[in-house]
Amino acid sequence: MRILQLSNKLPYPPRDGGALATLNMALGLADAGLRVHNHAMNTSRHFFPVSSIPENLRQKIHFSATPVDTDIKPLPALLALLKNESYNLVRFQKREFETDLKNILKTEEAFDAFILEGLYLCPYIPLLRKHSRAPILFRAHNIEHRIWERRADHEKSAVKKWYLKKLAGQLKAAEEKLPGLADAIIPISPIDAEWFSQKFPDKTQFVYPAGITRFANRDNINKVNRKSLCFIGALDWYPNIEGLNWFLEKVWPDLIEKDPEITLHVAGRNMPDSLKKRSFTGVSFYGEVPDSKEFIQDHHVVIAPLFSGSGMRVKIVEAMALGKAVITTDVGREGLALTPEEHFMLANTPETFADAILKLTQNDDLGEKIRLNAWLFARDNFHLHTITEGLVLFIQNQKLSL
């Protein structure tokens, strides 16, 4: 089978959860024997030369990309607001991408299925229909409007709150319509699947979480400094910077006073200058690191203080696969059937977050139990090749049903 996977950013390098989920799906399908062509928007924000993608990946997956400018601009944002259009969507409707996509459909061998990685690719469904009868599968990385609703809930400025709610409402209207143009839906979590089932009861679904390929050796998951914490995530993504600032301001001062030996190591691309300039006792800032796996493996506890966002937190699953004890919030554990103090530590307040850290850094038995259970959970539920077997059958069934 030949698959055309469309994404609104090049999935390499896999520096964030969305890119990792997109790349690993392509890898999983390729390893299962399918021929995968990923065509992406090579955005100004995440630009990366296709020719610089490692040769071993380009031998498995055919990558191509259209350079586009999706940067946020005040005037187009204002015009979209006046027209009551979703600027989030409008930014990704690019004539040059449409032209390249049309050329691919006209000149290349016919595709057996299309996979659209996220809501922002849905406006291109009519073009796919015009040139092919192959099934179109919409992959939902999250419920987009929930991200903006939660961001609005935490916004203090009345004007910004109003604007964020407006964006959320526009996205919700699009999300209740556009996925219905596809033939099937691939949600990333059961929670998301439930929402899509309510909105599109006639659409078949297959829950496909972000697959993981890198697992720690079981014998080495406990061999690190138990008082070393880390945070890793894209720091140009609002939920990450919001959660990190909350932790540094609300949790860290009291925590370091109770145990001065605890250290925190923060990594993430596009770290704001305002964060780099701040000084916290025991905290080290690294910016973007070459390898997230190596960075995570060097530390005992991974913190994920999230209060907005949606979908599945890929970095949490990646940390679990590396045998790490994770502390996160109710929002952070959404879409993951995890049991507190069995697979991870749950904390929603400064007091409970600090208490969870102290428990893990002072109780060897608790830490070892959680790390092992986390590793086993990730291995049993998110191993890429295991979960992709069902996806291949699902895609084949969609082709046969048309």
Topology (elements, then pairings):
Elements: E1 2-7, H1 17-31, E2 35-43, H2 55-60, E3 61-68, H3 74-83, H4 87-90, H5 95-107, E4 113-117, H6 125-131, E5 136-140, H7 144-154, H8 158-175, E6 184-187, H9 190-199, E7 204-205, E8 228-232, H10 238-258, E9 263-267, H11 273-276, E10 283-287, H12 292-297, E11 301-304, H13 314-321, E12 325-328, E13 345-346, H14 350-362, H15 364-382, H16 384-401
Helix pairs in contact: 1-16, 7-8, 10-14, 13-15
Entry summary:
With 402 residues, the protein is an alpha/beta fold.
Any overview of this molecule?
The strands form two sheets. The protein has a seven-stranded parallel beta sheet, with helices on both faces. β4, α6 and β5 form a beta-alpha-beta unit. Helix content is 46%, strand content 16%. With 402 residues, it is of the alpha/beta class. The chain has helices at residues 17-31, 55-60, 74-83, 87-90, 95-107, 125-131, 144-154, 158-175, 190-199, 238-258, 273-276, 292-297, 314-321, 350-362, 364-382, 384-401; strands spanning 2-7, 35-43, 61-68, 113-117, 136-140, 184-187, 204-205, 228-232, 263-267, 283-287, 301-304, 325-328, 345-346. It is globular. The model has no long low-confidence stretch (mean pLDDT 93).
Features:
alpha/beta, 13 strands, 402 residues, 6-stranded parallel sheet
User: How many strands in all?
Assistant: 13
Q: What's the SSE pattern?
A: EHEHEHHHEHEHHEHEEHEHEHEHEEHHH
Q: What do the pLDDT scores average to?
A: 93
Task: Name the shape in a single word.
Answer: globular
Q: How much helix is in the residues?
A: 40-55%
C-alpha termini separation: 15 Å
* Structural classification: alpha/beta
Q: Beta-strand level of the residues, as a percent range? A: 15-25%
Number of helices: 16
Give the low-confidence spans. Answer: none
Report on the biggest sheet: 7 strands, parallel
Radius of gyration: 21 Å
Spatial strand order of the main sheet: 3-2-1-4-5-6-7
